[in-house]
Specification:
With 102 residues, this protein is an all-alpha fold. It contains 6 helices and no strands. The chain has one domain.
């Protein structure tokens, strides 16, 4: 899976594709409104990408102070776009830079 359309379509499956890294698995669970499962994928990860996903998750939960901390760790400003727009942006970026070809 290498594109956003396929990633979104995979949300109908019972589990994320095995080829996804932890950041994309977190977004996959977030795309299914499974916050705790999504958070569990990135809560111990240390990459900037994981920090971005972690920040997004805390923004989604409404914990803006914690989100701000994670956005700083990711080297990003807190966005003013919708959560859906940010989810798509993160997924698209990760899919183009980190997802293996099937």
């Amino acid at each position: 899976m290498t594109d956003l359309k396929s990633f979104i379509a995979s949300l109908d499956q019972p589990a994320p594709p095995r080829t996804l890294g932890r950041e994309l698995r977190a977004l996959w669970w977030a795309g299914r409104s499974e916050w705790a499962r999504a958070h569990g994928q990135v809560d111990t990860a240390s990459s900037r990408e994981a920090a971005w996903v972690h920040a997004y998750l805390h923004r989604w939960e409404g914990d803006l102070g914690n989100a701000g901390y994670w956005y700083r760790r990711a080297g990003r400003d807190m966005p003013d776009q919708s959560l859906d727009e940010e989810w798509r942006e993160i997924a698209d970026r990760l899919l183009t830079t980190h997802a293996p070809a099937n």
